Amino acid sequence: MRFIPTTLKDAVLIEAEPREDHRGWFERTFCMEEMAGAGLKTGFVQHNSSYNHAAGTLRGMHYQRAPHSEVKVITCTRGRIQDVIIDLRPDSPTYLKWEGFDLKAGDHRQLYIPEGFAHGYLTLEDATAVSYLVSAAYTPGAEGGVRWDDPAFGIDWAAEVSVISEKDAAWPDFQPA
């Protein structure tokens, strides 16, 4: 596995190193020893997945408040997404900065998202599926979010948002702590 720093502190793009032969390929998508050696958390308590019918579907921007903060490892298993993260940690040098990542099925890449980040994605193809490793159990009372089009962040989405939940569309404007 290769661990590639992003522009946001502690967020990492993980590239698997597939081994190919006449049958196809094999890759390791999780290795506790290698991830711990790269300084990443490795204790995951949930494995979630989502399926999205249409391109232009936006899910996010979600986070869990402490003490229920989550580390996530995101993989696009079918189709293609623009995955976006925002650093919401007030003490971080990249506080309020965002970065987007093009993830697609078969690209052998995953995104490691540290605690304290908002996360969301926009599907860029129909019939897109996403897989998540999550370090903390979902706690409804700790859920938070920021609006996908909040001017505080100015996210440059790769395509028009055409499908979004009422909840995700209604997050209030971000107010720094």
TrEMBL record:
The keyword Endoplasmic reticulum does not apply. SUPFAM superfamilies: RmlC-like cupins. The keyword Isomerase applies. GO terms for molecular function: dTDP-4-dehydrorhamnose 3,5-epimerase activity. Pathway: Carbohydrate biosynthesis; dTDP-L-rhamnose biosynthesis. GO terms for cellular component: cytosol. Keywords: Isomerase. The record marks Y138 as: Participates in a stacking interaction with the thymidine ring of dTDP-4-oxo-6-deoxyglucose. It catalyses: dTDP-4-dehydro-6-deoxy-alpha-D-glucose = dTDP-4-dehydro-beta-L-rhamnose. One of its GO terms (biological process) is dTDP-rhamnose biosynthetic process. Its EC number is 5.1.3.13. Belongs to the dTDP-4-dehydrorhamnose 3,5-epimerase family. NCBIfam families: rmlC. Homodimer. PANTHER family: DTDP-6-DEOXY-D-GLUCOSE-3,5 EPIMERASE (PTHR21047), THYMIDINE DIPHOSPHO-4-KETO-RHAMNOSE 3,5-EPIMERASE (PTHR21047:SF2). Catalyzes the epimerization of the C3' and C5'positions of dTDP-6-deoxy-D-xylo-4-hexulose, forming dTDP-6-deoxy-L-lyxo-4-hexulose. This is dTDP-4-dehydrorhamnose 3,5-epimerase. It comes from Cereibacter sphaeroides (Rhodobacter sphaeroides). The lineage of its organism: Bacteria, Pseudomonadati, Pseudomonadota, Alphaproteobacteria, Rhodobacterales.
